[in-house]
Design goal:
Layout (H helix, E strand, L loop, with lengths): L12 H17 L6 H8 L13 H25 L6 H17 L1 H10 L8 H23 L8 H20 L8 H19 L3
Helix pairs in contact: 1-2, 1-3, 3-4, 3-5, 3-6, 4-5, 4-6, 4-7, 4-8, 6-7
Amino acid sequence: MSTKPRSTYHHGDLRQSLIDGAIALISTAGVSDLSLRQVARHIGVSHNAPYRHFEDKEALLAAVAEEGFKALTLTMETARQDTPPGTKAALTAIGSAYVRFALAHPAHYRVMFSEFRSNFHDYPSLAAAGQKAFMVLVSTIAAGQTAGIFKAADPWELARVAWSLVHGQALLILDHRIPVASEAKLEEFLQFSCQLLISGMASV
């Protein structure tokens, strides 16, 4: 019998373990000092093991960001499922879901929008994941325009305005610039701000 230790990873598990390890380290120490060697040490594999899946730190961060965008898309799509299409409630639901995703997954969110410094288009699957997330917002607004609720403007431009609002809220709350004392206060703030946004977008 062989005396070599058996790997604790089955086929396909190492890549996800490296992503999970990176997220755990980013959550406690940020991105600046992160390295593939550090992630390998954290999850208990050899220093060379990460290179089976990621050529460098940037590629690993791209994978973290891509995973985040996919999760954000699912979160927003799930939120609007409980609302009639083409309604103000649908836009409010995904706006609230966006901010709540950021607060629940700060490490993912900061890599998605703050810490990943390279061009998204250097990583096609990441670019596609980011675009899909944004299209949830665009399609929700377009449905509201079809229903006559939102003004007849370029839905992409309206989506950028809406995104600017929720993205700013998410970062300001994460950085403790906007104090939120309780879950009830958070919900009140999100509902109020979404109503102001919708009022500005309303069809006259």
